[in-house]
Design a protein that fits this description.
With 321 residues, the chain is mainly α. The chain is built from 17 helices and two strands. The protein has a two-stranded antiparallel sheet with strand order 1-2. It starts with a helix and ends in a 5-residue tail after the last helix.
């Protein structure tokens, strides 16, 4: 019986490897329909997220459309040095940081407050109506939203200027005044995203155990106290994750709305990295230089995401990874 023990031990050691592989195959066979549904998502990310990363090589080359990516001359960090030494760099950096920071500071708390207040409404018809109206801008494109802003602020037929004139004041050209651009941009972002973001917080609030509120009522807590000591702490992990995502996207301001709202009078406060990349890459066909600027913007956004995730994990224990 003694010689058989090593064989049993060897079988016991090798068994987990075979069982793990069999377990994976079993899961694949069991979930094959779900995996088939997931294939378009994988193909999408390969084609439109990971595939284009190959094109970043042109940021280190003098790209020529006739010679192709591999045939173009390698110049290393020349485009980055040219961008960092240009007079546009600090203006673009300042505008991008300020627009992103103001959008984060003012736009992040509003959906949370809106969801908390909406959760306290007991009249279901009113609650659903307000939520639906707040969510409607999510169905509108940036072009439509920008057109609505332009019409609303028009100095001749705009509703706001009509009200200003009716109150006895002079009509104002808001969109050509540099002092108003950031206010217009941030406020329009809040209006367009408050309903969509609030849905996430309402879903988190719906997951709070009702027994906590029942116990609080027995103890004589007011609705404000229940909101402060039960609702907000319960959805704090969701708030933390959303804050990390918003911080990572703070530096990646889309060019669409800025491009539609700004003009030569507001370039000094409105021009950001994305609009600069659009002008240099598509209008001036300086593809390599524009790719270098876009790569720098993406790297800064990545660093901000990593730093915010690290701070959140160390401070509160909640993080993306």
């Amino acid at each position: 019986m003694q010689p058989a023990q090593p064989e049993l031990a060897q079988t016991a050691v090798s068994q987990p490897k075979r069982s793990k592989g069999a377990e994976i195959l079993r899961h694949i066979k069991r979930d094959r329909q779900l995996l088939l549904l997931f294939i378009p998502c994988i193909v999408f990310f390969i084609l439109f997220r990971y595939g284009p990363l190959y094109g970043l090589i042109i940021a280190f080359k003098n790209y020529n459309v006739y010679e192709g990516i591999l045939g173009s001359e390698w110049v290393g960090l020349e485009h980055f040095k040219a961008f960092f030494s240009s007079q546009d760099f600090w203006m673009l950096f300042r505008n991008t940081i300020l627009l992103g920071l103001f959008t984060l500071l003012w736009g992040f708390p509003f959906p949370i407050l809106f969801a908390l207040l909406l959760n306290e409404v007991r009249l279901q018809f009113f609650k659903k109506t307000v939520q639906t109206l707040s969510y409607l801008p999510a169905f509108l494109s940036v072009v439509i939203i920008s057109s609505m802003i332009i019409d609303f602020l028009s100095p001749t037929r705009g509703l706001l200027n009509t009200i200003i004139e009716a109150l006895g004041f002079t009509r104002k050209y808001f969109l050509i005044d540099p002092e108003w651009f950031r206010t217009i941009y941030v406020s329009s972002e809040i209006w367009a995203t408050i309903g969509y973001d609030a849905i996430i917080y309402l879903a988190a609030i719906a997951g709070v155990s009702p027994t906590l509120y029942e116990a609080a009522r027995v103890d004589g807590c007011t609705r404000f106290q229940m909101m402060r000591y039960i609702t907000i702490p319960s959805i704090l992990p969701t708030i933390t994750i959303m804050f990390i995502l918003k911080t990572g996207a703070m530096f990646r301001i889309g060019y669409e709305k800025v491009l539609l709202l700004y003009n030569p009078m507001t370039y000094d406060v409105a021009d950001v990295f994305s609009t600069y990349v659009y002008r240099k890459g598509l209008l001036e066909t300086n593809y390599s230089y524009a790719a270098a600027v876009g790569l720098f913007e993406a790297l800064v956004a990545l660093v901000m995401l990593l730093v915010s995730n690290m701070i959140s994990r160390r401070a509160g224990g909640s993080s993306l990874w």
